[in-house]
Amino acid sequence: GVVVTAEHTLRRDDDLSVTLPDGSTVPATLAGRDPGADLAALRVDTASAPALTTAEPPAAGSVVLTVGRSPDSGPNATMGIVSAVSGEWRTWRGGRLDHYIRLDLTLYPGSSGGVVVDFDGRAVGIATSVLSRIAGLAIPASNVDRTVDELLARGHVARGYLGLGLQPVELPDHRKGLIVVSLESGGPAAKAGVIIGDVLLSIGGRPAHDTDDLAGVLEANRVGSPVEAEVLRGGESRKLAIVIGERPRRS
């Protein structure tokens, strides 16, 4: 079976165990972590762990229940409402959530990593206390399904990178861009011919006014794909094709 939890709750990679609904404890192995979305997947040798039906993103004001487990008190639950829901949202850790689902309830110790269910018992997502400084969030069920599939297949989530250090800059004609202040030797941008001092004006057909503008271009499904970048060099515009690389994993 597969058990999903919040990545920040795992203090180590080895000697893991999972307590099942019947109270028994079984050993678990780490399948993979995705700090960006605060998700981790564990493999357990059991067929008794229940699977939940997933729900569509809830509306603000929906009643939800978060279920967790504490080493001291055992199973615990906390009830509240969904206080806000919006569209696609990027976490400060670099992951992208399909929806921003803010919870108005108390996340006790042991609540993070627990399932958030709606009034009908369907899984809204996984509770986390670290992705927002404002309140606890539910990592959407759609993100959980997609991320777990990748963690089981490869042990991590691939994210794109260019090998660039960039800073916003305003040009004399008041256009905005990103000036290249550092360049990774042998990285995707360097291989494409980018040099320090170039000003990135657009990439993938999108204006490059801020580093956040690059986020959509660097999603996992773009790794290995070429993308057209427009740079300004010595007052002249140039088009370069950059093959998006996979961001190196931290050791």
Topology:
Elements: E1 2-5, E2 16-19, E3 25-34, E4 39-44, E5 63-70, E6 74-86, E7 89-90, E8 96-97, E9 100-104, E10 115-117, E11 123-128, E12 137-140, H1 141-154, E13 160-161, E14 164-170, E15 176-183, H2 188-192, E16 199-203, E17 206-207, E18 226-233, E19 236-243, E20 245-246
Antiparallel strand pairs: 1-4, 2-3, 3-4, 5-6, 5-10, 6-9, 7-8, 10-11, 11-12, 13-20, 14-15, 15-16, 16-17, 16-18, 18-19
Low-confidence stretches: none
Count helical runs. Answer: 2
The separation of the N and C termini measures 28 Å
The helix fraction, in percent, is: under 10%
Largest sheet: 6 strands, antiparallel
Average pLDDT, rounded to a whole number, is: 90
Structural class per helix/strand content?
mainly beta
Strand order of the largest sheet: 9-6-5-10-11-12
What value does the Rg take, in angstroms?
A: 21 Å
What spatial form do the alpha-carbon principal axes imply? elongated
What string gives the helices and strands in order?
A: EEEEEEEEEEEEHEEEHEEEEE
Number of strands: 20
Proportion of residues in extended strands? 35-45%
Describe the structure.
The protein is mostly beta strands. It is built from two helices and 20 strands. The strands form five sheets. A six-stranded antiparallel beta sheet has the order 9-6-5-10-11-12. Strands 14, 15, 16, 17, 18 and 19 form a six-stranded antiparallel beta sheet that branches. A four-stranded antiparallel beta sheet has the order 1-4-3-2, covered by helices on one side. A hairpin with a 5-residue loop joins strand 10 and strand 11. The longest helix is centred in the middle third of the chain and has 14 residues. It is elongated and about 70 Å long. The protein starts with a strand and ends in a 5-residue tail after the last strand.
